[in-house]
Write a structure and sequence with these properties.
This protein has about 325 residues and is of the alpha/beta class. The protein has 14 helices and ten strands. The protein is globular.
């Protein structure tokens, strides 16, 4: 009987040791967090990167934020290791001297922002107002760039403005509180779908403004976790390659994810460059242009010479 008990005990200990060994071997993934705004389809590489984190040894935990500024703030505060932003939050970071490191641009497009209105042209619509927009975002900077194209146009600050959230342009126009709205896809298209029968249209001026999507972290995190940073960059690069190499499948996934009618996304999808860009000069020029618009908006607090320097953010780029 004692021999049987000794055998059972030794067998149990062997089994526990084996399970522990297997468990230790499977805990190879590094855990990281990312703050991301998930309400826009043109962040496609951000969504598809989820397919590749694990194979690059990353257990990624994501949480949603409303804007890129919130994503940047989470990264700076250390509540997120990575973030996704447009150029505007990077200007904000430069002005505040915050530790932000750009890891690359995963998308760009000059046809995502526009004016929804019912006038003869977008400038007339903006002048007559009231105009719904979201302050400190790509919609404001697009409007400033549009109005700055001629000295005959008023500045944005001379218009009658209503500040709303990005999705808020739809209800504000539908309720008649605004006669025009400056916004970005998908909210401009949602407004158009709802109001087209009432004579509204969407005007986009591609030459006026280019939207970029940037993957960011901090230099502190990059120095402490260089392998994780490399793995996340590789996940984004693979996701970008998937989007560019398999557009039909990507469109179908995005249409399903955002409850779009089949076939409606392709014309808009085709306006976006989803190649992952690490060219320093390209990104520097985009940030400089954003800073010029921020200075015009009075957001730079007179710090033009000192703050228009993004070099410290671009040390990981080619």
């Amino acid at each position: 009987m004692q021999a049987i008990l000794r055998y059972a005990l030794s067998s149990s200990l062997f089994l526990l040791a084996f399970i522990a060994l297997v468990s230790c071997g499977s805990e190879s993934d590094s855990r990281a967090t990312i703050a991301q705004a998930g309400s826009v389809w043109w962040n496609a590489p951000m969504f598809f990167a989820n397919d590749y984190y694990s194979e690059n040894g990353i257990e990624m935990v994501s949480f949603d934020v409303t804007t890129g500024l919130e994503s940047k703030n989470a990264v700076v505060a250390g509540t997120a290791d990575f973030g996704v932003v447009a150029a505007t939050p990077l200007v904000n970071a430069a002005l505040n001297g915050e530790d932000v490191l750009v890891l690359g641009a995963y998308m760009s497009s000059s046809e995502l922002v526009g004016v929804v209105h019912a006038q003869d042209n977008e400038i007339d619509a903006l002048e007559r107002g009231p105009v719904a927009y979201t302050k400190g975002t790509i919609s404001e900077f697009y409007a400033r760039s549009l109005l700055a194209s001629s000295s005959n146009y008023p500045s944005l600050d001379e218009l009658t403005l209503i500040t709303v959230t990005p999705p808020g342009i739809v209800g504000t126009l539908a309720n008649g509180d605004a006669r025009a709205a400056v916004g970005f896809d998908p909210f401009t298209h949602q407004a158009l779908d709802r109001l087209q029968e009432d004579g509204f249209k969407l005007d986009v001026s591609p030459q006026k403004y280019t939207v970029y999507g940037f993957l960011i972290t901090t230099s502190k995190y990059a120095n402490e976790e260089p392998d994780v940073v490399t793995a996340v960059i590789n996940s984004y690069k693979t996701a970008s390659n998937f989007v560019t190499d398999r557009p039909a499948e990507s469109i179908e996934r995005l249409e399903n994810q955002f409850s779009m009618l089949p076939g409606t996304l392709k014309p808009r999808f085709d306006t976006v460059d989803f190649n992952y860009v690490t060219d320093k000069q390209t990104i520097q020029e985009a940030l400089n242009r954003e800073f010029e618009l921020a200075a015009e908006a009075g957001l730079t607090r007179g710090l033009l010479a000192e703050a228009n320097n993004f070099d410290y953010m671009l040390t990981k780029l080619d």
